[in-house]
Input
Amino acid sequence: MEQPRNLHPFVAVHRHEGEIAHALLKQHLMLNSDLSPQEVENGKVAFPLIETATQDAVEACLQSVDMSPIFYTLEASIQPLVDPHRRLAKAVESWANHHAAATHADLLSSVPSKWERLGGLILLPADLSEQPSWLEVMNHPQCEDMWLGILDALKGDSLGIQAPIANDTFRSSQVNMLYGSSEVRFLDHGITYIFDAAKVMFSSGNVTERRRIGAISMEGETVIDAYAGVGYYTLPMLVHSQAAHVHACEINPASIAGLQAGAAANKVRECLTVHEGDNQVSLASLVGMADRCHLGLLPSSEPVWELAIKALKSQGGWLHVHMNVEEERIPSWMEATRNRFQAWADQHDLGFEVHNRHLERVKWFAPFVRHVVLDLECRRV
Output
């Protein structure tokens, strides 16, 4: 027996009018974006209409720009959804239609507009955990169907929800896993990272700074990374900047495990020395050893600034100082920071002149607050 055909209303215009017609139909909420446009006879293109779009309304819309639309009923094919936001919305809507009548509207209105991807792990924003409609989903007996639908929409393997960084010595990640494993391995800008996202922090939003640091030539240099983590900056300095050796200070055992796994995967293990524990102790043992010291802790790495300048070699070197600073205070902060390092150089008779060489605005951290990196050059007079 022949299957019934999937017929839908279409409106056709000349091909050269297609772009304008598409825009008008979309603007007036008459375009069925789930179906694909089709070519029809005499060089015309036909656009699918929603079922409630009347012929009079469509004619009025298109005749306003002197078009002469022709109406068809055609067999339609589903439009591939290339926009991941639309795929995610469709996945949530499909689950809600079957499982969450009570919270249907709230759920659809709170579909995330952003998420973080770490390899195959998709991390949804933390505020979902505070929304009643999503809490209901998390406690629903068929919640796994929702997680699988989201993963299919976003092309992921594992799913979690972010949470604020733990207020502990390790600044531990607090990801709430919803499906799959928190162990991740992924390639970013030619570097392999390996770690447990439920135990350590990795900010993929700082990609521009990670690549900027990796683009600085450090050939032949000994570098200290005072807050190494899983190698967020250590690995780019070894792989791309070609630092001769990096001393990586890190207190979190889970981060160290990821750092060592990443170093092995990128074949730079022999160029890395890991100093486990309090970096104030580690840096005190590295006095006079470095050409460069990276200070990548937010909101501030101030507790080790004095130790960092003392760790530079006698001829001097570079300091990369990360900080969260109010936008209007950036110029004064730069000069105050330079003055503080100059005072330590004088106090310890290092013979350095400290210069502000570059200020990188990495991203907005909060309203009116920037994550910045100040590059200081310390050179012997």
In short: The longest strand covers residues 352-366. The mean pLDDT is 90. DSSP finds twelve helices and 17 strands in the chain. Residues 220 and 244 are 5 Å apart (CA to CA).
